[in-house]
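Mods, move this if it's the wrong board.
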Amino acid sequence: MSYWEDLGDQFAYSVSWINEGHLTGHHRDGPACQLWGRTNLLKGKLSLAGGVGPYLFFDTLQTGGSMYKDIEHGLAGVGSLSATWHTESGWLVQLLGNYIVAESNINTGSILLGIGYDLDKLGRPKSRSVKPRSATDGDNGVKDMDNEITVFLGGTSINASKKSQTSIATGIEYRRNIIPYLDWTIGWLYEGNMSLIRRGGLTTQFWPTKSFLDNRISLGMGLGMYVALDTRYSAGAGEDEDETLLGLITPTISYRFAGPWLVRLSWNRTVSRYDRDADVILVGIGYGF
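Not the wrong board. Structure tokens:
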């Protein structure tokens, strides 16, 4: 999964989530950011590009205790080559090759074929402004709103569990647009009650964002902290029994469907120091004001 943003005709940057699949003894994934140089051929229908950048990986290993696996966190470099065919309708097809070099982990190569869409075809991209606006501002009557409250429901999966462990998850979030292209949130996340963990607490994140379709669609990537105040870890967890401060990485997409009302999908990756990472996928209904 990848989002590209043009930097003129010959350059671009991308934010991606790489999943390398299940290799022998490893299941590695995580976010990557790359800078690309490219050339456009056939009147822009075909573009060839090369990109490099850092890759923050989470590698679930087969080692660990009787109930859980070890998770190794690390930083790798990723180099990529791509060929992309663009259509008049905005749809595109991309052939992508990645080579990942990790000093403390395995090196891998992969070839991917993907389908995407040029979001600029939906209308001129916009940032939300911090200036208050009237209810009639914005194209097609869609108001720019700097505040949002969203209530979430979804599910949690423990990545390190040797047996499948899932639970219902809930959350609530207040979102504020502080400057163009940057949001801040504070909220409460409850991951549920499973045999390995019960965990819930305060979250706060900063979000680079971009809006399309006259501000109806918004994409973002949240980076921040998760203070787990309500916790229980399984016996034998060791040091992590007292772990309360975790990292939190969250890709999100929202769609404003009726005036101030919106639906939001967020995929949270909680980052633990002691092999208790989890994926928390939430769907929420929000209200902007």
